[in-house]
Amino acid sequence: MGEWIVDANDITKVYTMGDVQVHALRGLSIQIKSGEIIAVMGPSGSGKSTLMNILGCLDRPTSGEYYLDGESVADLGDDMLADIRNRKVGFVFQSFNLLPRATALANVELPLRYARNGKNRRKRAKAALESVGLADRITHRSNELSGGEQQRVAIARALVNEPSIVMADEPTGNLDTQSGDEVMEILLQLNKERGTTLIIVTHDPEIAAYTQRVVYIRDGMVAER
Fold this sequence. Notes:
Shape: globular
Structural class: alpha/beta
Helix content: 25-40%
Oligomer: single chain
CATH topology: Rossmann fold
Strand content: 25-35%
Distance between the termini: 25 Å
Number of domains: 1
Radius of gyration: 17 Å
């Protein structure tokens, strides 16, 4: 532990579907330093999304040890997992996952409603939107924004709780090249200014090229290159 913000060892994840057991992760180990920018790549069905769900405390492994920022989380119950997730992790998804009829400000305020330190919600949400260049879009509804702007709102929502880690699952997948480049620049600036650890799942080698290290997943394990 110590320097590792993510320290996962011998992680397995087995899903039971009727009489069939699906081994999504097969003894995978991964360590990530605080402040590191990494890409996770691999073919469809390789276990990337399962790994992200476990690293982001959305799910727990079937077996193995996982320390997130020094805390052992592999065996925690749902409430404790949710608490750590709210404090430590921000998520950015390919499909934005915004409330379409809510304003940009209301969408960004959402995590603060679930957090114990929900003071100054509006002020903090406005500051997060300003940090991604959307000061003039605060009162716009999500469905009035372009795809690139919606992803910026999603990034603002991810960082409003000042998480240690931002996990981005195909964050540019629904964007044109220019909007995708702008989103990546915002994420890199976030890392530079705040030291936020970035874990980016991507199929795109051009997006992976922005990162410091690429981890390849194949058949539920880290692939040797």
